[in-house]
Every structure is written in C-alpha cells, then in structure tokens.
Amino acid sequence: MQEDKITKLDSDELENQPHLAALLKRKQEHEQEDQVESQFPHKLLEEAELGNKFFRCTVQVLGLSHKDDNRSFIYVTDYTSRQDFAPVYFKQPTGCTVGNDQILKVEARDEQARTAMSLAPGDFVAFRNIRLMVSTTNLVTGRIAGNERLIFKLNPNGTGNEDLIELLQRKEEWDARLEAKKAVVQNATKKSKPPKKVEKAREKEKATSSKKSYETLLGRTRSIREVQEYSRCPWRFYVRARLVDYYPLDLEESVILRCSSCDKNIPDQFNECPDCVEDMADSSAEPRYCFDLEIQDEDGETLTVEVRRKENTLLGGLEPAVLGDDFEVFEQFREKLSPILGNLEEVHQGIKRNKIVKPDTPFAIFEILSRQDGNKRGYEFMNHWLPDGDPEEE
Predict the structure, then answer these.
(1) Domain for residue 165, yes or no?
(2) Strand (E) positions, the chain?
(3) 368: β partners
(4) Longest dimension (CA), the chain
(5) What is the dihedral of CA 311, 314, 315, 317, to 10 degrees?
C-alpha cells in the first residue's frame, strides 16, 4: 500500500495549486477586512458624520445602476432614516417598503464599481471605508472607492455577524410596524361615500401621484407637535393630516404678480410694477403661486403650510396665471386642489352668509419642508399622497 506523501506548497507557484491559491485569497481578504475594521467604527446611517469621516456599515441592497467598469451606483438601506438623503429614483424591487429618507445612494468607484456588478437587489452587504458626502444643496450621498476590496456580501442565514443580525432585526421591526399601521387604517373604513366630485378627483390624483405609496410613508409620519419641536432646520417631514382651511379665502386670489426686475410683489391694484414699469420695454410681471394651507393632524394640532411652487403633486406643474382673468386655468386649479379640498369652498361661502358648514376633507400624507425665516420658522408644502380610501374620524 502506497502512502500519501506530504508536499510543501509554494506560494510562488500558485498556477499549479488552485486550492492553495483559493486559501491564500480568503486569507488576504480576511486580513484586509480585519485591518479596516480595526481602523473605522461601525455606524448606522442615521448617526454617521458628514464629510471626510470614514466608517463601516451593514446594509441591504435595493437597486443598482452600472455606468461603466469604474463607476456604479448602489442604492441601500439599513432601515434607519435621515431627512438629508439626496432624492433617488430607480426601479425598486417588488415589496420594497422604504422611501427616500431611508435610502442612501452610494457611488462606487474603481474596484468597488466592479464588485458592485456581482451584487443584486436584496443582497446584504458590509461596506468598509465608506463616507457621506454633502452636495452644494446640502443633500447627502455615499462614496466608496479604492482598489482594495471594501464591499463584502453577507449571508443572512449566518449567525456570527452581530451587525447583520441587528440589521435583520430592524428590517423585521420596520415591516411589522408598517403592517400594524396599515391594519389600523384599513379598519377605519369610511361609513359613507364622499361627494362625487371629490371621489372623481381622488381617482385622478391617485393615477398621477408620485411613485411613493401612501402605505409606504405611513411608518415615517410625525405629529405636528413633533414637527414644531424638532430642532434641526431645514428638515423634511411627513405628516398625516387633513386640510381644514386655506388662505386667501377666495381661491382666485391664490396667484400674485411678482416683478422679475426688482423681485418684489406687485400691489394688487397694479398689473405692472410701479417702480420698474418705466424702465422696462416688456412686461416684468410674473404670476406666482402664493397661498397657504392649514392642516390638522389626528391629535387636533394645526400647522400653516405655504404653497409657492408649481412642481409638486398638488399642482402638477400647472403654470400660474391671474386666476380672476383666466377662467379655464382657474377651473384647472380648482380641479387640482379638489382631492384634498373637500367642501372647504362651501365652508367659506357659509362664512359669508353667516351659515356654519362642517368641514369634510380627507386625510392625506403631507411632505413639508421646514425653513428658518429670520426669527421665525416656516413650513413649505412639497408633496402629498392620498390613500385608496380615507379613514374617517370617529
């Protein structure tokens, strides 16, 4: 019987020793990982510092966009949130329940871009040497680069990685919390149908609304009191509330004229800026949306929210015009507002006739942006989402 011989392996002749080559590769990756882990702390995305601060994190991949061999974008979440994440748009996997404030766009360069090509939505990965970058508009993205391997795919069925275990727990808690909120809303079914014009407008709004769903955002809503007490500004919030009033009381006055020359509002009695009209060959008057919404949450707290932009889910890009002079645009404007307006026009008409009309408006999720205006804090309407059926107050 011939005994097996023990042969000394030579690391300089790996081309003839595939098993040794694989072993040494795993050893090198492990050493690199240990070295990086000893240098930078592991952080949640919500607590990571901005700028040139490297850290480690454990995340789930939601989407990928490969530009070339040296540049890819990886969309990830660790199921924490922060309101300064840059907005993202990508084809989300079926069943994805997270929104912009939980999704970090990571730019992968060099060897990391090539590693990203082997990833797929749903994968769990560990990032080493990642950092958060701030754009000129104060929005945050991630960046990871270099020729060392810094992206490691993780096995969710393993039990040895504590950071991965905590990520899976956060995901499970998030999914459970979302399902619980959805159940509450579904159980609060309306006992009566809304007016036909409101119902029709809601269907139209649902067909043209943003790709974010009402159900997705339910788990991230805050109360109005929490919004008002939040210290950081500017900041983006989601609030579940209903419209209870608007100003000016006459919707036709929701557009003002602003001078494109001196950038001042033109008084109501003028069609041109009285300070600049003699110096301008053409009209300097530009119509601008300028109206306020008063919203009320389930706790009865109210907040005034300004509407100044046309690019949002409420106005849908409708160009502003002097509404009192353009009946067609005014009707389009009223139709745009009707999904959240309910019967508030009738309420205002009742005030003029000394008649009390009870407001009847649907709940929606409002995205609002806080900003500091001198010593006061203001809030601007950004977007809104309506459910398939709006729960009615008990």
Answers:
(1) no
(2) 55-68, 71-77, 104-109, 124-134, 140-144, 151-154, 235-247, 255-259, 285-289, 291-297, 302-307, 363-373, 376-385
(3) 237, 381
(4) 112
(5) 30
Q: For residue 40, give the CATH number of its domain.
A: 2.40.50.140
Q: Which of 246, 270, 238 lies closest to 99, judged by CA? A: 238
Cα separation, 336 vs 319, in Å, equals: 12
Closest among 138, 76, 153, 149 to 107, alpha carbons compared: 76
Rounded Cα distance between 84 and 33, Å, is: 29
Same domain, 68 and 117: yes
Shortest CA distance to 357 belongs to which of 241, 245, 240?
245
Which tokens in the block code for residue 371?
């900003």
Q: At what angle do helices 327-341 and 196-208 cross, to 10 degrees?
A: 90
**Cα separation, 30 vs 18, whole angstroms:** 18
Output the pTM of the full model.
0.47
The backbone torsions φ and ψ at residue 172, rounded to the nearest 5 degrees and listed phi first, read: -65, -40
Q: Are residues 196 and 139 in the same domain?
A: no
181: how many CB neighbours lie within 10 A of its CB?
17
As given in the structure block, the two tokens for residue 236 are 């983006």
Assess if residue 92 is contained within a domain.
yes
Structural domain harbouring 369: 189-254+290-385
Phi and psi at 222, nearest 5°, equal -120, 160
Contact 362, 383 (CB under 8 A): no
74-112: per-residue pLDDT in tens? 999 999 989 889 888 776 666 667 877 899 999 999 999
Distance CA 9, CA 349 (A): 92
SS3 253: helix
Per-residue model confidence (pLDDT) at position 226 = 93
Residues of the chain with pLDDT under 70: 1-16, 20, 25-38, 91-96, 158-160, 181-213, 269, 277-284, 388-394
Reading the block at residue 263, the tokens are: 């950038």
Cβ–Cβ < 8 Å for 14, 20: yes
Residues 321, 381, single domain; the answer is: yes
User: d(Cα 223, Cα 240) in Å, to the nearest integer?
Assistant: 7
